[in-house]
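Running this now, will post back.
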Amino acid sequence: MEDVLDLYAEAKDERRPQVCFDERPYQLIGDKLEPLSVKPTQVKRIDYEYKREGSCNLFMMVQPLGGWRKVKVTERRTKVDFAQCMKELVDEHFPEAEVIRIVMDNLNTHSPASLYEAFEPEEARRISRKLEIHYTPKHGSWLNMAEVEIAVLSRQCLNRRIDDIEKLKRETAAWESKRNDKGVTIEWQFTTTNARTKLKRLYPS
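Update: finished.
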């Protein structure tokens, strides 16, 4: 826990950016009946019945101090999908960085070993050398600021029925672009000092 909190306390460093990474499943849902037509001042009226159109996955990558985030919509959440996200971070989003310091949950897919599932050993090693992983502790995923950004995405973009993965990609891309254009950052308030006081029960006595 303190490893992550100490990282959050550091100033922004373009050569060593902090990036929080997380994912969430998404259920594609459509209407069984067409919504009723409404006037401009009326609330949209939809039937309570819906139909399931499958599911997909949302990867969230966010640089809290840089006001940048990226939502990647994929059909699945596999080791290869994770590895592709890491490659994009290294080669597309932060190509000039000496190292990217990533905060993520300790899931089975969140490992440098996933890179070797997706790429040749030389390529996997090249990518892994640019990554410095900081895992949140067990039952401590709330320490991952990507969860904050996912919550905002859920309220502002996913709070309605979306029945098609391509539409979901367009909608999340539009939300992402608007947030990035505004340069919205995350101001983390919980510090190591707070943890030692408020979570004293978690420390050895």
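The chain has a mean pLDDT of 91. More later if anyone needs it.
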